[in-house]
Write a structure and sequence with these properties.
It is built from 18 helices and 30 strands. The chain is elongated. The protein starts with 12 loop residues before the first strand and ends with a strand.
Length: 740
């Protein structure tokens, strides 16, 4: 056992550095460079040995460790009383004053200790009781910044007792008070730079560019590395400072050495540039850099990705973590951003090295760059990839469409390469084809869903479209979760494509493959391709144009087939209003069903034009009796009473969410349902019918907000046979006025 007064600079200690999953090999190299011995990477950390000076150096200089733990003792226990006794036997008076503060962290379990809080309580009791018996006083608990932070790990009856020399995570360098959206931890940013070869590039005088810098963590960590700045030099708290074994003179010596090295290093810092299109986050990044002691050392600018330029002399490193989520909702999409990034790198940074860190690896295909290596890292719970390459013609490849768009034809697998699951898939598709094919022929249905993730291993939807040119298959893969190995997911997709082509005897160009991800707004309507190829399909008595490649959806919602037919049956002699009309397929049914007039409203120019083509295909003349209105439906409903017009049938099928720039405000069907239904119901004739439908999976209709209206749920009656196994695909209601 190591006691406080016996601790000296020369004593060799057993130490453990914790780190994030995936960083262990890099941390082992870092500790070896600092002078550690017996370095052994393990899960979520690295064990090593060294003297107290090494332990201090690790706290001060490690860019990758989270905590540095010094082993005090280890013992075998069989129950909680054993743990208490073993802890009480430690000479805590050599480590902590009776008037000091402590905190206990307990990990693991077993030996009758199933809750970490209970384990930590027993450790704390042992420490406090020992000091109280010897001094008559007891330390207090300070979970934030104690004089002594104790860490105990229990596994299979073996307890390891440590002092936490860091006190709080070492990735908290002190410069980042606000992180902005989706920040990288400082330690992860440093790991990415090390894997990308930044120390060697910087030593050779190469510059660094981050064109999507966010709050600046990557360029700041790059500057700290290049300038030989100890990452922990400006921290105002370490766990060893209140420990009785602490050697202040040794620590002050190491700290002074670090200050001198920083002073020299900042004088030879290479050119580092960071930019972002968001001025607010650039201001945040500059403030972070100033707190890190780097004021004026990094060139920050507000600029679009496509405006970025090389810096410095010769080749350098472009490294970036393309943002995703809220900051991109108003942009054209991640695929376009990745494509722009790849194009910019190819055009302006030839000869440089590039490192792209992504939490959405399939988007790497959009770069048009072939990664030389791919390293796996974990950003919190998200499995990510660092794609590294040298920007040279041999790395340039054809950019692939983004996930959600139509993919090029997948190369089929050989029969020998098909796994056991492929035969299960074949059997299921044959079974579905026998049943649904017979149903489709009997009901003159030319477009239907054949398969919808019936087997969990093959998570895709398969729709068949019989067009004038023949049969097409529309395969939509549901984006796999991050926990699924991308290579395994890609293999299953190729298996699925191979099976579908063989079973349906399709030419490769007759199989369209897309990835369907959770969408916000009208992202499912945004353009994903430029083929412009339309096909004519039949839905008796109607004909429609579909586009199988350029959009995530094809222009025809198959799950609404029965609902459209209902609109046609109810439309005879009525004035019909179709709100959020999309491609006006329901309007066509209404017009051919004998509607007195139709009015179709949608905000999108693309879909109003598509609607116009659908009307024309069915011989319906746009004009006074069949109007197409491009407008925000809410704004149009607010002004509609001025027309003094009422409708005998209204079809209302809004998107789940929309934040189009052309709208005055965002739309959320759950939030805005009361206002929407109220405005639409104002336009109903006394005996009018409002059909309200939504694809929101957890939608709850608030009928109590509409006195005077009668609601009848008709979901089951509107589910076609091919969607019966997915009853949550949509919900639907008939709404009428209460009889007086």
């Amino acid at each position: 056992m190591v006691g406080g007064p016996t601790v000296s600079q020369a004593v060799t200690h057993t130490l453990f550095a914790t780190t994030a999953k995936g960083l262990e090999p890099l941390l082992a190299d870092e500790l070896t460079a600092l002078g550690a011995s017996d370095v052994r990477p393990t899960r979520a950390g690295v064990a090593f040995t060294g003297d107290l000076e090494l332990a201090y150096r690790a706290c001060l200089w490690s860019r990758l460790a989270s905590r540095i733990l010094l082993l005090l003792d280890h013992f075998t226990i069989t129950n909680a009383d054993d743990l208490y006794a073993a802890i009480k036997a430690v000479a805590w008076e050599q480590h902590l004053t009776a008037d000091g503060t402590l905190a206990v962290e307990f990990t693991g379990g077993g030996s009758g200790i199933d809750h970490t809080r209970f384990g930590a309580q027993r450790v704390k009791d042992g420490v406090v009781d020992r000091l109280r018996e010897r001094t008559g006083r007891r330390p207090s608990v300070d979970p934030a910044r104690p004089d002594l932070r104790i860490h105990l790990h229990l596994a299979r009856g073996e307890a390891q007792l440590y002092i936490d020399l860091a006190g709080e995570p070492l990735h908290r360098r002190g410069y980042r008070l606000e992180a902005g959206a989706a920040p990288l931890k400082e330690s992860l940013a440093a790991a990415l730079l090390l894997r990308a070869g930044w120390p060697e590039i910087a030593a050779a005088g190469g510059g660094l560019v981050d064109p999507l810098c966010g709050s600046g963590t990557l360029p700041i960590e790059a500057a700290l590395i290049a300038a030989d700045c100890a990452p922990g030099i400006d921290r105002d708290y370490y766990g060893f400072e209140g420990w009785l074994g602490h050697m202040p003179a040794l620590w002050q010596q190491l700290h002074a050495e670090a200050r001198e090295r920083r002073s020299v290093g900042l004088g030879r810092l290479p050119a580092i540039a960071a930019s972002d299109s968001d001025g607010a986050v650039v201001a945040l990044a500059e403030a972070n850099a100033t707190r890190a002691g780097l004021a004026g050392k990094i060139h920050f600018s507000v600029a679009p990705l496509t405006a970025v330029q090389p810096v410095g002399e010769g080749a350098g490193l472009v490294i970036t973590n393309p943002p995703y989520g809220e900051r991109l909702e108003a942009q054209e999409g991640l695929g376009r951003l990745y494509a722009d990034l790849g194009a910019t790198l190819r055009e302006r940074f030839e000869g440089w090295r590039a490192a792209i860190f992504t939490g959405n690896p399939p988007l790497g295909l959009c770069l048009g760059l072939k990664a030389r290596r791919s390293h796996t890292f974990w950003n919190g719970p998200i499995e990510c990839r660092l794609l590294t390459l040298t920007l040279a013609p041999e790395a340039y490849v054809t950019a692939q469409p983004p996930p959600g768009s139509a993919r090029p034809a997948l190369r089929p697998l050989s029969q020998e390469a098909l796994g056991e699951g492929a035969q299960m898939l074949i059997n299921r598709l044959r079974k579905n084809l026998k049943h649904l094919g017979r149903w489709a022929r009997r009901n003159a249905v030319d477009c239907y869903r054949l398969y919808d993730a019936d087997l969990p291993e093959y998570a895709f939807a398969l729709d068949l479209y019989t067009t004038q040119e023949g049969l097409y298959a529309h395969l939509q893969e549901y984006a796999p979760p991050a926990a699924i190995d991308p290579r395994k997911a890609a293999l299953r997709l190729r298996e699925a494509a191979t099976v579908v082509q063989q079973l349906l005897e399709l030419a490769p160009e007759r199989l369209v493959v897309k990835v369907r991800q959770r969408q916000k707004g009208r992202a499912q309507y945004e353009k994903l391709g430029e083929s412009g190829q339309r096909h004519q399909v039949r839905e008796d008595p109607c004909r429609f144009w579909v586009n199988l490649t350029d959009y995530l959806d094809t222009g025809l919602f198959l799950d609404h087939r029965t609902t459209r037919s209902m609109v046609g049956e109810l439309a005879q002699g009525r004035d019909v209003l179709n709100l959020f009309c999309y491609t006006a397929t329901a309007t066509v049914h209404a017009a051919l069903g004998g509607a007195a007039s139709t009015t179709s409203v949608d905000l999108s120019n693309t879909y109003i034009d598509w609607a116009r083509r659908n009307l024309a295909l069915n011989g319906i003349q746009e004009g006074a009796f069949h109007r197409l209105v491009r407008a925000d439906c809410f704004a149009w409903l607010e002004g509609a009473p001025r027309e003094r017009r009422r409708y005998g049938l209204i079809f209302l099928d809004p998107p789940t969410f929309s934040n189009s720039k052309r709208m005055e405000e965002s739309f959320d069907v759950e939030r805005d349902q009361e206002r929407l239904i109220t405005l639409a119901a104002r336009l109903l004739d006394e005996d009018g019918i409002l059909i309200f439908s939504t694809n929101h999976r957890r939608f709850k209709l608030r009928t109590e907000a509409h006195p005077g209206l009668h609601f009848e749920e008709i979901t089951r009656a509107t589910l076609p046979e091919d969607f019966a196994r997915n009853p949550r695909i949509h919900t639907c209601w008939l709404i009428t006025r209460e009889a007086h």
